[in-house]
């Protein structure tokens, strides 16, 4: 069985929804406080997918997820090992990581995304929305064709509606060299678009003013994926504010929410890998 670990604690608050996605797909999801991992009462190596959900870790007092990222990167576990080294080994073992919203911010600030240099140095950041306010509404995102991440591997899905709820979602890239690498390797895997599906810098379709209109980013291997919108908040068609309109337009529409596809893709990838 595919095993997903969903971490919680320190202000993370979307763990139940993220675990629900895996339960609905027949996978095993375990919600675990981060201290349980730091004290080595369990190990990330017992799982296939490591999930960093959204929330307001440490109150976002000095920048969203900065304290959490430092804890991941510099925290010594009970044995004296660094947690970041455990994550590195987890990825070397061919496993997968997803971070949503606050989780995405943590992955960026601990250097896991996009990690072009391969040394977990921070190459991009997520900072205050260009609007200067918290954004809580639905947006449309397009999926970059031929991107490297299995989280977005379904070729039949070109884009999706998803809800955003963040105050610091504006992606800023350190320099032009990093930006060029992101573009060349198609790491900007999810972009904000207008109602016609065109990538846009215009507010409110782009809720935060991200460079490259980035809504989601992966690393070169595709194993690490982070996004600002919340796929775990759209597991059912009936989560959508216009579900009735969608149903009338297409009576045969799936009752799965569009966000479910992200979790379905990775569960199928792991399942197929485990069966080989």
General description of the model:
With 276 residues, this protein is α/β, with parallel strands linked by helices. The chain is built from 8 helices and 11 strands. It has a 9-stranded mixed β-sheet, with helices on both faces. It has a two-stranded antiparallel ribbon with strand order 5-8.
Give the SSE map.
Elements: E1 3-8, H1 15-24, E2 28-33, H2 34-38, E3 49-52, H3 66-74, H4 83-92, E4 96-100, H5 102-109, E5 124-127, E6 135-143, E7 159-166, E8 170-173, H6 176-184, E9 190-193, E10 214-218, E11 224-227, H7 243-249, H8 260-275
Parallel strand pairs: 1-2, 1-3, 3-4, 4-11
Antiparallel strand pairs: 5-8, 6-7, 6-9, 9-10, 10-11
Q: Count every helix, treating DSSP H or I runs of 4 or more residues as helices.
A: 8
**Largest β sheet strand count, sense and barrel closure:** 9 strands, mixed
| Structural class estimated from helices and strands | alpha/beta
- Looking at the overall shape, the CATH architecture is 3-Layer(aba) Sandwich
Q: Report mean pLDDT, rounded to a whole number.
A: 95
Q: Helical residue percent? A: 25-40%
- Total domains: 1
In spatial order, strands of the major sheet run 2-1-3-4-11-10-9-6-7
The CATH topology? Rossmann fold
What is the radius of gyration computed over CA atoms, rounded to a whole number of angstroms?
A: 18 Å
Find the count of extended strands (DSSP E, 2+ residues). 11
For this structure, what is the CATH homologous superfamily? Class I glutamine amidotransferase (GATase) domain
3D shape: globular
Instruction: Give the SSE order as H and E letters.
Output: EHEHEHHEHEEEEHEEEHH
């Amino acid at each position: 069985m595919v095993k997903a670990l969903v971490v919680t604690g320190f202000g993370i608050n979307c763990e139940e929804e993220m675990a629900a996605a895996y339960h609905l797909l027949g996978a095993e999801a375990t919600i675990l406080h981060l201290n349980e991992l730091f004290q080595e009462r369990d190990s990330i190596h017992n799982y296939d997918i490591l999930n960093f959900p959204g929330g307001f870790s440490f109150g976002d007092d000095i920048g969203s997820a900065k304290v959490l990222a430092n804890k991941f990167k510099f925290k010594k576990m009970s044995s004296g090992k660094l947690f970041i080294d455990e994550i590195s080994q987890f990825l070397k073992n061919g496993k997968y990581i997803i971070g949503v919203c606050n989780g995405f911010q943590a992955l960026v600030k601990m250097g896991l995304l996009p990690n072009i240099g391969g040394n977990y140095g921070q190459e991009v950041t997520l900072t205050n929305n260009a609007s200067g306010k918290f954004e809580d509404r639905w947006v449309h995102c397009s999926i970059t064709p031929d991107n490297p991440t299995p989280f977005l591997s379904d070729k039949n899905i070109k884009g999706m509606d998803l809800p955003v709820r963040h105050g610091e979602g504006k992606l800023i890239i350190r320099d032009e060299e990093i930006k060029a690498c992101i573009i060349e390797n198609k790491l900007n895997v999810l972009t904000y678009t207008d109602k016609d599906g065109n990538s846009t810098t215009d507010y409110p379709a782009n809720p935060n003013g991200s460079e490259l209109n980035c809504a989601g980013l992966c690393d070169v291997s595709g194993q690490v994926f982070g996004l600002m919108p919340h796929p775990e908040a759209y597991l059912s068609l009936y989560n959508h504010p216009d579900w009735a309109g969608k149903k009338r337009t297409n009576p045969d529409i799936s009752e799965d929410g569009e966000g479910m596809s992200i979790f379905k893709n990775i569960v199928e990838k792991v399942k197929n890998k485990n069966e080989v």
